[in-house]
Design brief:
The strands form two sheets. The chain has a two-stranded antiparallel ribbon. Strands 2-3 form a two-stranded antiparallel ribbon. It has two domains: 45 residues, no CATH class; 41 residues, no CATH class. The two termini are 14 Å apart. With 117 residues, the protein is an alpha+beta fold. The chain has three helices and four strands, in the order βαββααβ. Helix content is 28%, strand content 15%.
């Protein structure tokens, strides 16, 4: 980041189900809902990239489905939830009739590089 000493925050993984406390989840959901409302998103999908510091922070919030490994594989395999299957019927888009049973918790993690690198 030019002109600042603030660290960059690369995606380091995702855990399903979340390890956040109920209180932290409520704070995160509230922040994301307020952010979407402030952008005028009233209908349709949106996804939020967030980070938990001393509290929740929004990194980005585009009005689209997430296309990452997380939404395509980790969440469906862990929970049997499919974002496309939730949003397509509301948008009157065709949906394949299949579902994946949840198999087990899914976890993908990475490591922050040291500041010296």
């Amino acid at each position: 980041m030019t002109g600042t000493s603030a660290p960059a925050f690369p995606e380091t993984g995702h855990t399903n189900p979340t390890s956040l406390t109920a209180s932290a989840q409520e704070g995160l959901y509230g922040l994301v809902t307020r952010a979407a409302t402030s952008l005028g998103i009233e209908f349709g999908p949106y996804k939020a990239d967030t980070i938990m510091t001393k509290g929740p922070m929004v990194i980005e919030l585009p009005a689209r489905l997430s296309g990452s490994f997380h939404s395509q594989y980790t969440t469906p395999l862990a929970t049997a939830l499919s974002r496309r299957r939730c949003h397509c019927p509301r948008s009157r888009l065709p949906v394949r009739k299949y579902s994946l049973p949840p198999r087990q918790d899914r976890n993908l993690q990475a490591v922050f590089p040291s500041r010296e690198l």
